[in-house]
Amino acid sequence: MIVSMGAKTAKVRPRVAILAYDGLSLFEFSAAYEVFRGDAEGGAGSEHYDVRVCGATDRFVRLDNGLRLEVAHGLAAVSRADIVVVPPTDDLDAVPESVLQVLRRAHARGARLVSLCTGVFVLAAAGLLEGRRVTTHWGQCAELAAQYPTLTVDPDVLYVDDGDILTSAGSAASIDLCLHIVRRDLGAGAAAAIARELVVPPYRDGGQAQYIQAPLPADECCDLFADTMTWMQAHLEEPLGVDELARRSAMSRRTFARRFAAATGTTPYRWLLRQRLLQAQQLLEASDLPIESVARNAGFVNAANLRKHFGRALRTTPHAYRRTFQAREPA
Q: From CA 330, how far away is CA 54, in angstroms rounded?
């Protein structure tokens, strides 16, 4: 967002309000704060968002681990927020009616509401999810569906982006959703820069199911499998077939496919496609390469193939994506 100041321009950072109330989960709260705020010395997040911790009290709230968190801003600050983050709490009754009211007003004026893990129960209590597709921690999906039968609860995904309301699965999926918001707002480069600071992947394939399953027993193939995953990441521009990847891992095709699904929650084809799309996004943002060259370097063979997959996955074209994100300041 740009505002005019005579001969100069100033960038107005989107305002993010993170709600705080008793029983607040420290992990999800910290995930949102670290992604959107960064560190006080100019972390990647702090360049782009103006973050406020807001609550019904101007003193302290009790965290789920017994610690106390100082709340710097009252609920009035939420009225100016573009994004309102709703962390989970171990005590839904501790969420005051004033918080539910401010969420309703924020939604009515068009702010994006972002629930993390079981924070979705707060949005549901505010009456804002009627008929929506949502997710939460896999352990609470059945309870959410039973309490709110009009909702479509998806237990398999890491997060759901329903436009003005976004919901995440449990714990670390909060980071996935917050990075998704950064990627949507500012591009893949900005999200990747924040992910590097946090030492997390900028995008995780698959869903919650991979974390419910029992882990596979370790054997002598594990190191070879990990090496193959790393090799795939470094050779996205090459044609990569399952048979070749299985041979590199010293596994049969069937074993490789099963192990890959257990490790990533998706198929080798879908994983490669997502990695190639991320590579194309970064090239479109950071280079002036022709679209045909971007396609070849990202492993799409030609521009037509890139445009097809770009349109299906991102609902836009490579040219439009470049116009939107290449002009932004680099993260």
A: 30
Angle between helices 173-186 and 26-37 (to 10 degrees): 20
pLDDT class for 180, splitting at 50, 70, 90?
very high
CA–CA separation, 132 vs 165, rounded Å?
A: 9
Higher-pLDDT residue of 224, 177: 177
Question: In the chain, what is the straight-line distance between the N-terminal and C-terminal CA atoms, in Å?
Answer: 16
The Cα–Cα gap between 18 and 113 comes to: 10
Domain ranges of the chain: 2-198, 213-265, 270-325
- Tell me the CB-side half-sphere exposure of residue 9, using CA atoms within 13 A: 6
Structure tokens at 237: 């521009």
Residue 11, beta-bridge partner list: 2
The CATH code that applies to domain 270-325 is 1.10.10.60
The owner of tokens 């030492």 is 199
Nearest residue to 48 (alpha-carbon basis) of 61, 34, 37 = 37
**pLDDT tens digits, one per residue of 254-285:** 888 888 877 777 788 888 888 899 889 889 98
Compute the distance between CA of residue 37 and CA of residue 30 in angstroms, rounded to an integer.
Answer: 10
Residue 39, pLDDT score:
53
The topology under which CATH files domain 2-198 is Rossmann fold (3.40.50)
The answer to whether 316 touches 307, Cβ cutoff 8 Å, is: no
Dihedral angle at the C-alpha atoms of 242, 243, 245, 250, nearest 10 degrees? 140
